């Protein structure tokens, strides 16, 4: 493994923010960051180039200096040599990128008390609605369709290959429009009982 960085100590006031840091922070997030720094101090370790240019941790270091801790000495990860421009940009992207993604359900179960304090980029309300829809008991169909070879009822299928046949069959079977039992969709009903079919067939022959 290439040990390009080592842990040393630096005075916060000596660290120089990079002019083109790809991360930015809103005023509201700055206030939250200041509150957490005041409560816990510097938790994560900043990463700097050999000339003290901040690669990662710019927001934390700047806020601490603004809070009056410019003379505070902290641990930092320092490059053992001056990075090339390409190396600096690549390391900056690596350190400022959040790998992976949040486990939304675990957050909800174990960290519910902090959901309003952090921006996880997750729509928890939509997640709850989706879970409720998936776990809701399905309505019981009057004549449920079940897998082949285990049908509860015998079924006969009439295949219409053109619109004329479809209209004739629909007229014969007196197909009505109705609502799907699984959703709010409305369409034509295509299921009749044997008794209904016999009555319809007799009336059609009269």
TrEMBL record:
InterPro entries documented for this protein: ParB/Sulfiredoxin_sf
Originating species: Arsenicibacter rosenii
Organism taxonomic ancestry: Bacteria, Pseudomonadati, Bacteroidota, Cytophagia, Cytophagales
SUPFAM superfamilies: ParB/Sulfiredoxin
Listed name of the protein: ParB/Sulfiredoxin domain-containing protein
